[in-house]
Amino acid sequence: MEFSGGKRKKQRLAGDLRNACYPHSLQFYLQPPTENISLMEFENLAIERVKLLKTVENLGVSYVKGTEQYQSKLEAEIRKIKFSYRENLEDEYEPRRRDHISHFILRLAYCQSEDLRRWFIQQEMDLLRFRFSILPKDRIQDFLKDSHLQFEAVSVEDKTLRDKIFASSPGLSESMLELESVYKIPFADALDLFRARKVYLEAGFAYVPHKDIVAIILNEFRTKLSKALALTARSLPAVQSDERLKPLLTRLSHSYTGQDYSTQGNVGKISLDQIDSLSIKSFPPCMRHLHKVLRENHHLRHGGRMQYGLFLKGIGLTLEQALQFWKQEFIKGKMDPDKFDKGYSYNIRHSFGKEGKRTDYTPFSCLKIILNNPPGQGDYHGCPFRHSDPELLKQKLQSYKIAPGGISQILDLVKGTHYQVACQKYFEMTHNVDDCGFSLNHPNQFFVESQRILNGGKDIKKELVQPETPQPKPSVQKTKDAPSAVASLNSSMEVDMEGLEDYFSE
Hints:
Number of helices: 24
Strand content: under 5%
Order of helices and strands: EHEHHHHHEHHEHEEHHHHHHHHHHHHHHH
Oligomer: single chain
Strand order of the largest sheet: 3-4-6-5
Distance between the termini: 16 Å
Radius of gyration: 26 Å
Shape: globular
Low-confidence stretches: 6-15, 462-503
Structural class: mainly alpha
Number of strands: 6
């Protein structure tokens, strides 16, 4: 790929060649783009894809994935920004080209840390799942072949084979088996279905119904994209040495989850005496549970201390308050004050960026809590909707005075692995609102929105000291000087960046 300061000259390709470049509305992004592109288009495509992936994330939290409402809203958003999403539409070359290039641009921005990679992979997987769900059945086999997936659609006219597949695939009806394809794939590619005893195996191959093939395709996509991002990260210093790209990639990498609750706009507004009452009124279930366990046991293991401590930091506890809070609680558990000062206070100061490498740690997002560091024996951190036994979760919701009908709704969402939607439903029930009006993706967001509702739309009432004015982080959406910044980077002379595709692959 090459970059220039001027406008990009449109490629004029014959129809057959254009179709050969992008034969499908979805792809595994196996080959990086090699054409010339202006820096202005580079930024515009990147911003549009960030907006698309943010929409994918928000819809995934607000609606159950795969439902008609989720599908229609996501399709409308893709159509609005003119990215490819359906087969058999007229003049699909340009939307597919934009989709292809923008994906590889964001690889550069989102390969820089584990959290960025995790977020990017999850949203790209959800986008691929949507596109695959609307791919015409007569195009699926071609897509699999072009994606280097050795999945062969087979006939199941043989009654013995059909009966074995039907018996081995829960949820598969005979009518579905007659209407949908069955794919013969290598056994090693269907290990998850095999572990769950949901697939028929014969002679080293798995016979997978169409309804289950998407999970295997997504797993292949995740594996390939994860490896590609790791390779891109190794080559990133060479890309960042180009002063035209570095500020753009920095802004993009800071825009993926919105507010990270590290600026502590509420610092000093929460007193230690308020925490018990706030935990009941405004804490999400994960933090409410940690607080209850801490009060009962006067101790939390490292995972719980990190998750809860950073949450308290995010809602406004100062370093001095945090040290006092944890010390008072641990001493109640018969811990010697000197032992606390020597063994635990350093970690608290470290989380506030006052020790070690001086990193100012941010509170954990829902995605990080759900996917990272699952709780073991004796641990209490994690997401109750993801990590709790359903019966224990039901008892906990009953203790929170959730109505039986509401508990059933939440448990149904949990059963479908819609953990954040379940937490959002819990928010609506505990705050007596039909629609909370936001997509929940952070425990501290839960707290902030709860306080806004309970205080009549106002922020938390000031208790102690005047908070410092937070310094906003760079954001793609709020960077008003972005065009001028790009203009200053552009020059009238073309600068070659041949070989950029090498940064995406070995």
